Amino acid sequence: MSRARPCVLAISSRGGHWTQLRRLRRAFAGCNITWASTDRDLAKEVAPDQFVFVPDASRWDRVKLAWSILSVLWLVIRLRPDAIVSTGAAPGFFALRFGKLLGARTLWLDSFANSEELSLSGRKASAFADLTLTQWPHLGEPLVASSAAGNEVPRRSLARTKGHVYHAGAVV
Amino acid sequence: MILVTVGSQLPFDRLVAPVAAWARARNVRDIFFQHGGTTVDLTGFEHAAFVPPDEAARLFDRADAIVAHVGMGTILSCLERGKPIVVLPRKASLGETRNEHQSASARSLEGRRGLFIAWEPSELAALLDQLSELRGGEKIGPDASPELIAAVRDFVWNGQAPGQ
């Protein structure tokens, strides 16, 4: 099934979203990984991996929002990743949106902070992302049945996971 | 050293003011405020509106205890270092954040070792007085849960999700 070294974009805003994204690092071992976030100084935290700065977006400032969206679009066009993973917020959401249009498979991991309901971005992303994960068991269907904890678990095709919300553990 | 931090988004004077008042009353000087822009007089204390990530990491390393909002970045930084943290949730009803997720997070995290919750600013002083006795929980590792790592890994490599 697996091809050589998938090209992966892991993208989030700085702060808590980033801290959670960084805790997925081991999942990207062996991939051609590019990290992207809204603070240049975060490059050090994932060195020597490739890191790209993207400007932050705010719903309230239209010029900044447009600049952020264009930067994310350019990044996704330039990288043409096989897969995009985001923990939020706005830049990650747009990366998933554009990535989906360009044929990438897309994963939204909703923040641990959203323990009572999925974030607004998460709810929107779940409509088109190939896989949407919550970190709280009561907010999603289990992705892996507890009885199937072996190595050879059956696979679920992405056509079936789209539009649903699953739980497969947490960043902590 | 006590690190007071309100995160990279918005000020949070409902936390900063009572902590500064407590530090003055108890003559605590070894305290750093990352306040995000404040109207509270912090003369005599080390403080900054924001600090870059590497300096923030150094402050977390140095701190004996952390006083903060219920931000996941801050809480994970404490759990990764096994340091005790006192938190006050931001309230959307007071314009301190966009929704009430901080109160929900605090309820979900309640009982975790090393995490102490002040639901209201009035509860801060009593917790701060015990600060030197508060102990952090076990240090957590750098990785998300094995199940989550496996799911993400499977997704990026094979484009499939583990099923049942």
Structure description:
The complex is a heterodimer of chains A (172) and B (164). By secondary structure, chain A is α/β, with parallel strands linked by helices. Chain A has one domain (7-167): Rossmann fold, CATH 3.40.50. Chain A has six helices and nine strands. An eight-stranded parallel beta sheet of chain A has the order 3-2-1-4-5-6-9-7. The longest helix of chain A is centred in the middle third of the chain and has 18 residues, at 62-79. Chain A is globular. Chain B is α/β, with parallel strands linked by helices and 164 residues long. Chain B has a single domain, classed as Rossmann fold (3-Layer(aba) Sandwich). Classes of the chains: A alpha/beta (172), B alpha/beta (164). At the A-B interface, α1, β5 and β8 of A face α3, α4, α6 and β7 of B. β8 (155-157) of chain A pairs antiparallel with β7 (160-162) of chain B.
Please describe the topology of this protein.
The complex is a heterodimer of chains A (172) and B (164).
Chain A: E1 7-12, H1 16-22, E2 32-37, H2 43-46, E3 50-53, H3 62-79, E4 83-88, H4 90-101, E5 105-109, H5 120-126, E6 131-134, E7 141-142, E8 155-157, H6 158-161, E9 166-167
Parallel strand pairs in A: 1-2, 1-4, 2-3, 4-5, 5-6, 6-9, 7-9
Helix pairs in contact in A: 3-4
Chain B: E1 2-5, H1 13-25, E2 31-34, E3 46-48, H2 53-62, E4 65-68, H3 72-81, E5 85-87, H4 101-109, E6 115-117, H5 124-129, H6 146-158, E7 160-162
Parallel strand pairs in B: 1-2, 1-4, 2-3, 4-5, 5-6
Comma- or semicolon-separated keywords:
heterodimer, A: 172 residues, alpha/beta, B: 164 residues, globular
Provide a brief overview of the structure:
The complex is a heterodimer of chains A (172) and B (164). Chain A is 30% helix and 22% strand. Chain A is built from six helices and nine strands.
The separation of the N and C termini of chain B measures 49 Å
Number of helices of chain B: 6
CATH hierarchy class name of chain B: Alpha Beta
H-E string of chain A: EHEHEHEHEHEEEHE
Query: What sequence of helices (H) and strands (E) makes up the elements of chain B?
Result: EHEEHEHEHEHHE
Q: What is the CATH third-level topology name of chain A?
A: Rossmann fold
What is the CATH topology of chain B?
A: Rossmann fold
Average pLDDT taken over every residue of chain A: 91
> Helix tally of chain A?
6
Spatial strand sequence of the major β-sheet of chain A: 3-2-1-4-5-6-9-7
- Biggest sheet of chain A: strands, sense, closure? 8 strands, parallel
Task: Tell me which protein chains meet in the greatest interface and how many residues each side has.
Answer: A-B, 61 and 44 residues
Structural class of chain B: alpha/beta
The 3D shape of chain A can be described as: globular
Write down how many β-strands of chain A occur, each being a DSSP E stretch of 2 or more residues.
9
| Unreliable residue runs of chain A | 146-152
The biggest beta sheet of chain B, please?
6 strands, parallel
The helix/strand class of chain A is alpha/beta
Query: What is the number of domains of chain A?
Result: 1
